[in-house]
Amino acid sequence: MTTTLLRLTDGETTINFSVGDGEKLIEYTPQIALSFTQYIDDEFDVVFLDTPSNNRINIQKTNRLFEQARNYKSSETGRKVYIEIDPASSGQYWRSLITNGKIDLNKDVISPTWDTHFKLIIHITRQPFWEGELTQIPLSNSSAENNTSGITISNSSREIFDLSMLWDDETPILWDDESEIEWEEGSGAENFVDLVAADIIGDLPAPIKVELEHTKSGADAAKEFYIWHNVYSNPTSFTHILEAEDASGSTVTPSGADSTSSNNQYATLAWTNLNETLIAEWALSDTLMTNAAGGRFAVLARWRGVFPYTNAWMRLKLLTANDNVLWSGDLKLISSVKELAFLDSLRLPPYLANQASIKDIKMQLYGYRNVSGTHSINLDYLQLSPISGDFGWKRFLSIDDGIAHQEKFIHDDTEGFDYRVDTSDKLISEFSAFGGPILLAPNRNQRLYFNTCDKDNEAKIDQTYSVKLWYRPRRNAL
Hints:
Blueprint: E1 5-9, E2 14-16, E3 23-28, E4 40-48, H1 52-75, E5 82-86, E6 94-105, E7 118-126, E8 130-131, E9 135-136, E10 139-141, E11 144-147, E12 151-154, E13 167-168, E14 171-172, E15 192-195, E16 206-214, E17 222-230, E18 241-243, E19 252-254, E20 267-271, E21 277-284, H2 286-292, E22 295-303, E23 313-319, E24 325-328, E25 332-333, E26 340-348, E27 361-368, E28 375-387, E29 393-398, E30 408-412, E31 417-421, E32 427-428, E33 431-434, E34 439-440, E35 446-454, E36 464-471, E37 474-475
Antiparallel strand pairs: 1-2, 1-5, 3-4, 4-7, 5-6, 6-7, 8-37, 9-36, 10-11, 12-36, 13-14, 15-35, 16-30, 16-34, 16-36, 17-29, 17-35, 18-28, 19-20, 20-28, 21-27, 22-26, 22-28, 23-24, 23-25, 23-27, 29-33, 30-31, 31-32
């Protein structure tokens, strides 16, 4: 016969209601949430079987934990308090944060004189779900599969090409035009990691803990981080990058080979008109549209170098193959010189969500600058960054320089903290957070994308990080 184990704990003080503290759990049927915006009121019966003095001590400890839970709810100071349950003595507890509690005498009290054998009713108010133990998730990309030791990502949209592949005993192997090099077949890693469905258990979306360690020696500190979550737009097959050199238009001039750009190339977008002008167009294939599945995307631009103007505006549009406008975004001032810029958010396609065989459309980029002369912008790529309304993405900005080489950035939404870990393992809370939360969907393949900017506003594609990821699986019922 299995025994249900139940305990109240803040990680330092623990009251065992099943075994170990002279108590016996008689009955507990956890309630199930009808709304995840409201906490649940539960109760369970416990018989106290120890000596009178020990019974009083345990009751006092329990009441102190309840007071601590109330204090944390009102002030977010002190330790959090959880009710934890192991339904079948499996060795794995599931927890639920409590915000209040009290103890009542049961009507069937065996000894109201506080002797050695009496029954109490424990009342608690708790979160409307249960969380399992913190579990690391294996990650995969082109650099490794099922990695838990720290998988490599770069700040590039494609794999980083290893120039040493072009030489054999210091003799060049490839003497042709560098533009013929297939840059995607090099070593390194792209800016995303994959998670497989079987590794995400439970039946409710669950928050993440992610660790990014700065691994490029000599590189500047990373000041800004973006994390994007793709779960519903066919994450393993969705193409999230529109390379600038793939754009069409008389204003588009692809560069030669450039090792500081994604896919070893960028494009110069140049125009002279003083009116709003079409400066680049991309064909969005039927495959891309079908994979996008009607999802929402933030369009992020990476410039090749810092943005050259403080008085330039950009606008995105989506059009049919016959050049009829399906959607037009806002004309937005590019107000920062950073190499990364948010242009707009949109749905792709802007119709027929989750339908198959979606027809191809076009994306157009417009520029405006009311100054005479040639306007010239070096664009590396546009990134279609998955979002889900106001969540499904995070942006973190350091008020200092950010994380330097061998330092770590931690976003721990399982506990509610964001911080830097320096090389002496000291924690510094210096990041402002925007957006979110990112919640992993149970039993689904999904992908996380990363972008960073350093303290000098540069988003260098050869910047590398080591990534680890954890979560606590969530359940509505046990």
